[in-house]
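[Discussion] Sanity-checking designs against the backbone

I'm trying to build intuition for which residues belong where. Below is a structure token string of 483 positions. I'd appreciate it if someone posts a full sequence so I can compare it with mine line by line.
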């Protein structure tokens, strides 16, 4: 294959040369499907102990067939990570507006959050990015040197999101794509508003189909490494079974899309933990404590909208008591996702001192695609950073706030209510599965260490995923585990 030798100047000429380097437009018009067998890893950015890494990692082997010209994706995935002794298997399929998930024998329609994750994955395909550049007005950007090599830079806007392509001037192949990303249906990424996803393509390989295609994709979100895959087998125009993209009847219904910001808070589920201390169960619990002169909110999870509903509930329940503070007890993204709602109201944010940069990054996020209250006003946030224990005195319901400073809970804080001997343990007390087994003995030891260190007299403990239980259950479990 001979590359064009002219120095391309016009953006469409650059794109045409890139398509030619990949095999030519006629060749790509003849390719209906691509089957890729891949191995790789994913970093769980939202769940890891440190937002700057190292990250919790899962390892994946994937067999995937995707449509080149249609929104079709069939994916079989097997993965392993530290939380599961057994290999986790999942199948999924997208065909137009319909989607399916399959776990073992369980088949279900694909929820909108899963759909958005896989729509994003389909968008990363290099052929999609380059072929889309033929459909939209393309702009020539300033050339850029990446890794010492000159690249042409072109961009286009699709669905109000800018796509920037970096084309190697020597090979005419796509080296990098910067894609503006907005995921209103994806639980873990929505709190960051509109952000940048970067994909780097390497191991450009010539295949027997006379197609050049990158065998390695490295994906970065928010400037952090997110996923890396290596394609170890690929087939352009594979034989596709007639029913590969047929949605089973039990999954044929298209679920009503649910915006993450609209996730309901079921306040009717409110539980009394102790006198003047309450929790509202859900996928992510919220809690509050009533003091003589106001309300202390415990956690601002998921989204601004979720926190707005909690605020509205508290304002109606306690019309004469202002919200004095919100306690963001961990750096995990589900904990901090709604902090903007409190910052918009100038409500002080109490958190571990190590969490300040991450929460500031959340507050600086671009919410222009779907503005929340903070996007409209952007007041200077008020932080109270916890490094040592502090006390918030009150005649009726005082509270002591303590840093965990453990291995898993390095960035977590706990709240202790001495009058009722109640402890809020952030993420450190939770069950796994249906057998009411504790998730992490390490976490429990960190709770006990903090309780012992600060001489807290605890009778009841509750947490971000756990309704109130006797603290004795934690102690009894540790005694049995350590034998």
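Best answer:
Here's mine. Compare freely.
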């Amino acid at each position: 294959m001979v590359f064009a030798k002219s120095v391309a100047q016009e953006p469409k000429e650059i794109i045409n040369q890139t398509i030619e380097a990949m095999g030519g437009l006629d060749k790509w018009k003849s390719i209906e499907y691509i089957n890729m067998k891949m191995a790789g890893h994913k970093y769980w950015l939202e769940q890891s102990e440190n937002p700057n890494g190292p990250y919790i990692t899962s390892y994946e082997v994937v067999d995937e067939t995707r449509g080149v010209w249609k929104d079709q994706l069939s994916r079989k995935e097997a993965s392993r990570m530290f939380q599961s002794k057994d290999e986790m298997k999942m199948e999924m399929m997208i065909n137009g507006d319909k989607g399916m998930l399959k776990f073992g024998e369980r088949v279900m329609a694909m929820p909108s959050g899963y759909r958005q994750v896989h729509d994003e994955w389909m968008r990363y395909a290099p052929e999609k990015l380059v072929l889309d550049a033929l459909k939209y007005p393309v702009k020539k950007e300033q050339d850029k040197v990446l890794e010492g090599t000159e690249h042409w830079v072109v961009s286009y806007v699709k669905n109000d999101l800018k796509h920037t392509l970096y084309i190697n001037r020597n090979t005419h192949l796509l080296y990098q794509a910067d894609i503006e990303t907005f995921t209103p249906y994806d639980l873990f990424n929505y709190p960051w508003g509109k952000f940048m996803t970067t994909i780097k393509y390497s191991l450009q390989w010539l295949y027997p189909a006379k197609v050049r295609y990158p065998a390695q994709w490295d994906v970065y979100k928010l400037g952090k490494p997110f996923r890396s895959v290596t394609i170890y087998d690929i087939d352009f125009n594979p034989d596709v079974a007639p029913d590969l993209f047929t949605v089973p009847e039990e999954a044929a219904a298209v679920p009503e899309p649910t915006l993450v910001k609209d996730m309901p808070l079921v306040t009717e589920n409110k539980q009394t933990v102790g006198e003047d201390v309450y929790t509202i169960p859900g996928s992510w619990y919220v809690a509050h404590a009533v003091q003589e002169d106001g309300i202390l909110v415990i956690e601002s999870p998921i989204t601004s909208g979720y926190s707005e509903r909690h605020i509205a509930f508290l304002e109606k329940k306690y019309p004469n008591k202002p919200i004095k503070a919100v306690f963001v007890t961990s750096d995990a993204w589900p904990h901090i996702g709604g902090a903007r709602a409190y910052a918009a109201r100038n409500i002080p944010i109490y958190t571990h001192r190590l969490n300040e940069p991450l929460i500031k990054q959340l507050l600086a996020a671009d919410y222009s695609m779907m503005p929340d209250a903070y996007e409209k006003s952007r007041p200077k946030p008020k932080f109270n950073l916890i490094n040592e224990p502090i006390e918030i005195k009150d005649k009726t319901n005082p509270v002591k706030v303590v840093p965990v400073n453990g291995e898993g809970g390095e960035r977590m804080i706990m709240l202790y209510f001495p009058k009722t001997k109640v402890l809020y343990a952030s993420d450190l007390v939770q069950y796994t599965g249906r057998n009411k087994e504790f998730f992490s003995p390490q976490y429990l030891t960190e709770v006990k260490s903090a309780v012992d260190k600060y001489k807290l007299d605890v009778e009841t403990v509750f947490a971000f995923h756990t309704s109130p239980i006797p603290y004795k259950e934690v102690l009894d479990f540790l005694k049995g585990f350590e034998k």
